[in-house]
Write a structure and sequence with these properties.
Layout: E1 3-5, E2 11-17, E3 21-26, H1 40-44, E4 48-53, H2 70-83, E5 90-93, H3 96-107
Parallel strand pairs: 3-4, 3-5
Antiparallel strand pairs: 1-2, 2-4
């Protein structure tokens, strides 16, 4: 089980699929990265490196508090990219994941590909 111990204080569960330009996928509230596997992973992994992760609050990711902010989850995402030695990634999120992806793009523009 791939776990990244991040400087943000989180042990984040993640998976990568495929190769090519990176696409970091953000699930909606309380969903794990598994939500992307039925359709997006088979369709996109032949052309891109997909990065799935379980944000704070999901069972495979451990964090030390009960309430999490969008900013904390954005910081976790950028720390995960650093851990994977990926300097830039496309961002795609659903619902809460969209807010996290938008926060990454606005706060860390060098880490996202427009």
């Amino acid at each position: 089980m791939p776990i990244a111990s991040l400087p943000t204080g989180t042990e984040l569960y993640f998976e990568t699929h495929g190769a090519g330009e990176a696409l970091l996928l953000f699930p909606s509230t309380a969903f794990s990265g598994e939500v992307w596997k039925p359709f997006q992973v088979p369709a996109l992994s032949p052309a891109m490196q997909l990065i799935l992760h379980d944000p704070r609050g999901c069972p495979r990711t451990k964090a030390s508090q009960q309430v999490y902010t969008i900013e904390q989850m954005a910081n976790d995402a950028v720390a995960l990219l650093d851990h994977l030695e990926i300097s830039k990634a496309h961002l795609l999120g659903h619902s809460m994941g969209g807010r996290v992806a938008l926060t990454v793009a606005l706060t860390f523009p060098a880490a996202s590909i427009a």
